[in-house]
Structure formats: structure tokens, C-alpha cells
Amino acid sequence: MATIYDVAARAGVSTATVSRWLAGQPVRAAAVIREAVEELGYSPSPMAQSLKSGRRGAIGVVVPDVTNPFFAAVVKGLEQASRGFGYHMLLANSDESSELEADILAELTPRVDGFILAPAHEQDLGPHALSEAGVPAVLLDREVSGGEAFDVVLVDNEGGARAAASHLVSLGHERIAMINGPTDTTPGRGRRAGFLAGLAEGDLALDPVYDMTGDFREESGRQITLQLLALPESPTAIFTANNLMTVGALKALRDMRVRVPDDISIIGFDDLSLGSLLQPPLTCIARPDVEQGALAMRLLLSRLTDGILDDGRHIVLNTSLLVRGSTRAPSAAHAPEIRPRLRARSGGATSE
Amino acid sequence: MATIYDVAARAGVSTATVSRWLAGQPVRAAAVIREAVEELGYSPSPMAQSLKSGRRGAIGVVVPDVTNPFFAAVVKGLEQASRGFGYHMLLANSDESSELEADILAELTPRVDGFILAPAHEQDLGPHALSEAGVPAVLLDREVSGGEAFDVVLVDNEGGARAAASHLVSLGHERIAMINGPTDTTPGRGRRAGFLAGLAEGDLALDPVYDMTGDFREESGRQITLQLLALPESPTAIFTANNLMTVGALKALRDMRVRVPDDISIIGFDDLSLGSLLQPPLTCIARPDVEQGALAMRLLLSRLTDGILDDGRHIVLNTSLLVRGSTRAPSAAHAPEIRPRLRARSGGATSE
DNA sequence: CTGAAAGCGCTTACAG
DNA sequence: CTGAAAGCGCTTACAG
Fold this sequence. Notes:
DNA-binding, 434 Repressor (Amino-terminal Domain), Rossmann fold, elongated, 6-stranded parallel β-sheet, alpha/beta, homodimer
């Protein structure tokens, strides 16, 4: 590989001049240098440049799981927004583990100029180590306790979950279950709070037997749904707190031959790529994903390139309720008013 | 940040000794050095190390689109297989564009030790530039013409597509359409060849009006399906050549209220994450994805760490036919034998 | 605008 | 096993 010395020699100037030309500064020998560069096929070594300048030219992206369509979309948004700024993306999955996340951050820190991070848990220490090291980070979809100084791009978890609750309440449901994610994550905490608030507005409380916590993965959604169906008095409606758990719940429902929405209503936080193709189509709380990634990247770039040093900026994106076919009023067999009478005879259609 | 000089000074040894200790070589002052490193919170600069050693510690991953669940799974496999080897992943999307791909490769080349690449088209020049530059690359899911020297991990496109054709033929279909991807991609070429072969085994040919080519994206699957449905004699079965186009086709079918499999059968290459939840569940050609990524990474690592210099190794993964509910024998109204008679009266149920 | 020179933080023959 | 020294390929005050 040709070095800057080769170019300088060939062009008959000093390496300093070549370096200036590379940086776009006005240089007398511009034409000769360009020629030498082309003939030698020269391209500067990013490693050497970084060593001198301290600029790494890379951004670390750490998400729980790229396999989750939401995060895949986020990554796409990140890339779109960063195009043309000369940064590359170092991607890693934390697999929802705070330990792995901390390791990854430590590994990546000396290699990047900043981070886009969706922390596994709100108690994660990794992000704080970052701010101590002076590496800017914007938190995506999830906050961290004591992390007010970070830029954050969130979705309106409370508002979305509240809308889900209101929707179910307005349909007449009373036996309503929530399959939530860990409450030590921002989405888990926010969606729970919002859901409880929405129920409260309908003078309902979340019955402890219907108050379930999974781990945001498909399998936990499936298992918990199975548990709910096995209850002596199973719920007439379920709110699943994210896309993957919704899929798990739907699979459990199908396996148990529970009809949606006849026997049970289901509404999920996050739309599914095939949400509109399901039978019935999924009622859900939809939200931007690619845009959320793009927004986060723009915040980071503004710190990196404009040297912005404000306090943490908070952006909260709106959700929207998509009423499709998976929710409806509870069937007569489950209607609260007549439930006791019917149950004395039938034992309840869904409790088996 | 502490440098190796700080550590050396504190430990009372030379930087050479510290460097050797870092590399795991036996050193007398090991204990003192360790202490100094801990007290200073020293961690070596990867940039400086790279500049000296030439080892970049990163692998470039270039795929058409991480948003495609197949590639998201592949990326997960790549990461799993590389864990513990000390490499980081630089991820970029080519967006199915050969030009963007070439730019990305040029940008990334000086920063990585090797590439995992799913080329946009078989004529791409980018990969050849790589081998000229001496940067190892393994091709994933897609080959490149004249690229016999590359390691490649493919899926059995021919076999899978042939199985799809056989399945439809065995059900009695004759008016069979294929919605393929670009034939200048390995999957497009292979799946077409396999499908034609499968039809030929049933003494059938692919009618030119049923021989469609999209771009592997959802929207093209939708558009083409609409075109097929508008045909005076629409097909009784469709084979879609990848996951995204299958989704598009299903949406078109739903929008046009065409019943599956009553009015039309559909089989896709690639399973969908919700494939089993659809009504009817999707019949498809399934294949490994995470494993394909892991395999590709192992090939690359073997070149990188063991310095293997063999000729290109080819791995072809098997597909499996998942017969679910979206395919069945053509209905009487479409049965070839009696079609002419019926059509004289009804005009055909699906042609509207 | 330009060049000589120092230095970014390491690693690695070379000599001991 | 260890240290002095050169050098990886750049950039950037400094002096002109």
C-alpha cells in the first residue's frame, strides 16, 4: 500500500502539504498531488489518522437483539441518518444482559466516537462509565437511572399503554391481563404505569393474578399466556407489552384453540410486520421505529460534529392505536353481569 | 487516558516489557505491572496497536438489508460465532445496490481484517477489488461471477425451488406462476433453475405469462400478484422466491379477497416468523439462517486466525419443505380437465 | 502557502 | 527475560 511519503515524493512536496491537500486546505501543488494520489492508488490509513487526530470515525451501536424487528428497523434508521457523515457502525447485541452489555461497552469504547445504546436494564452501570470516560452516548428506547445527562429518544410508553387499557375498558372488558416485560426497563415500567392508569380511569384495577411479567421474548409470552388460560377464571382480554411476547401469546392461543376475539381479545404494544395479515388482524399500539433510530443518530451527530454540550435532550415519540380485529366486547358467556349465573352451569368457555 | 509509558514508569520497567506482558508473554515483573495497570486503569489503544501490528480487529459485514428477518438472523449468527475471537462487526446495508456496495467496501476495507458479504448482484466488482487488495471475504447466500476463489455459504436454491415445484405439481396444479427475484443474483438464478426443473419433471413448463421477476422486496411481490390476478387466466398456484415477496403476495391476495388455498395456492421460499400463525399457515421452503451466518463467520475466522489459504470452500445448506395450509389441489373450477367447460359458463372464479 | 520535525501509542527485531 | 531504539502512517504547531 502506498503511504503519504510515496505521494509526497512523487509530487515533489512534503508530506505536510499532501496532508493539507487531503484535508481540503488550499495547496499550490494540488494538481500534481492529485495526480500522484491517483497513480499510486493512495488512500490514507484510517488507523494512523485516528492515532493522530483522536477521531475514530465509528459509532458503537448496542441493542438487546437485532433479530427483534423493532431493533432491526432502528438500525436501519441509524444508518440512514448517519450516511454522509463519515461514520461507521460497530454493532453488537447485549442479549438483554447487563453484564454482556458492560463488557461490550468497555471493548468498544476506545474504538468509537460515541454510542447509540438501548440499555438492557435501568440499573446498568455501563452508560455511566461512558459519560465518565467522556464518550457521548444517546439512549434509545430505554433510559438508565441517574442518566439525566444523556440524550434519550423514547416512545410514549405511558400514553400507548393507557390507550390500550382504555380501548379494552371501553369494549366492556373487566377481566384484563397484562403480560409485561421486566419493570426494571423503561418500557416495562412505563407501559405498566400507563396500563394501570388506563384501567383506573375505567374504575378498574389490575387483578394480581392477571399481572404477569415476562422478559420481552417470544417464549415468555407463550408460557404466560398458557398460565393465564389455565386460570380458573381466565381473562377475557390480554395486553402484551411488546412485539415478541405478542407473537408468543398468539401461538399459545392458537395451540390451545382459543378463538380471537370470540373467546379472548388481544392487543399488543408494537405492530407486527404481518399484523394486518393475521386472522383476525392484530389490534395494537403502533409506533415509529426507523424514525426513532434516525432521530437518535441525529442527536449523537449533533454532539459529535457541532460539539454540542447541552444537558440531556429528551424526545418522546407518539404512539397510535390501530384498532383491527383482535379485540371486541367480551362474549355473553364472559359478560361480567351474567357471568356468575352462566358459570354455575358451564364453568366458563375459556377456562379449559 | 494512561499510556503504556505511564504503566512502564510506575512499574519501573520498559514499555517493551509492559507490551510483552500485555501480549501474555512471560515477564519477571508481572505482578508489579498488573498492579500499575489496575491502579492507572490502563487499557491499550487499539488504534496504536493496529497501526503497528496491521491487525484491525474488525470484520466488515455487508448485507442488502438488515430489516429483512433473514439477514437479521444471519447477523446474529455471525456475532455468536465470532464471540471470543476479539473481532468487532462493522455493519452496513447495501440496499441491494451494487454501487453503494462498492462504496461501502472501499470505505471499510482499510478498517477491517476481512468481510462477510452478501453481494447485491453476481456482476458486482467490489468483491474482486477485495481479493486484489488481499482482504479475505466470505460470500454469504450469494455468489459473484468469477469468484471461485471466495469461500461461499449458500443454501440449496435449486433443490428448494425444485421441491416447491414438485409439491405444486403433485397437487395437480398446472397453471403455476413464479414470482422470482432478479436473475443476476444467486438466489434468483438458482431458484428459477430449480423451479423450472421441478416443473419439467412433471412435464410442465413455466408459461411466460406466469414467469415474473420482482426485486426481492415486499412491494414487488404485491404488485406482481396483482398483475397475475388480473390475467384473463390467472394461476391456480404461486411460488414466491423469498420471504418479503411472499408477504407482498399475501397482502395482495387479502386485498383482492382471493381465498387461500381455495382460490389459489401459495408457497414461498423462506419461512416467515409468523408463518405458522397465518390463516392458513404458510406452506414454504424453510432453511437455516442463524446457522448460515455462524458457518460463514467460522470460515472467515479460520482464514484470519489459522492463516488458511485454501481455494474457495463451498458450503451448501439444505432446505426443507414445510407443508402447511396454504397449498392444496386446485379447486374443481380450475381443474385442468374440466376447465374449458366451466369457464364457458362462469369465466373463472379467480380471474376477476 | 510550505517544510522540518515532533509525536500520537504502541510493537518488535536487535543486542545483551 | 529485558531495554534502547526504530518505526507503523499520519497530523500539526512552529518557523519561515
